[in-house]
Description:
Layout: H1 2-27, E1 38-46, E2 49-54, H2 55-68, E3 71-83, E4 86-95, E5 98-107, E6 110-118
Parallel strand pairs: 1-6
Antiparallel strand pairs: 1-2, 3-4, 4-5, 5-6
Amino acid sequence: MKVILSIFLFCILSFADIGEEISNALKSGRHQDTYKYLDEKVVVRILDKEDVLSKEQCMANLSFFFEKNPIRSFTLIQNNILSPNAQFIYGTMEAGNNKYKLSILIKKSYIVQMRIDYFE
């Protein structure tokens, strides 16, 4: 029983670290630091365009977006552990001249979904 509890706590703490690292990278404007957590295939929605992209395509699209819209600030609103294998991060960011909603779904320590939408 202690072994199972230890494994469960380790998984939760590992997820908390990933969410915290991603949040800190965004707060510092270092979006590139999040790329190491991208899965091989990622569902990406940037404004009105959504697609399933390879890790390389996702990095290229995000880099293009953030070159045009440098991060000025990021505020973490939620960092929820959904299960031992899933975590959800939600926040708002000011980038370029706009404010955006950013949501990230992490499964098994990898970002599998990322959405950037205008903040209304």
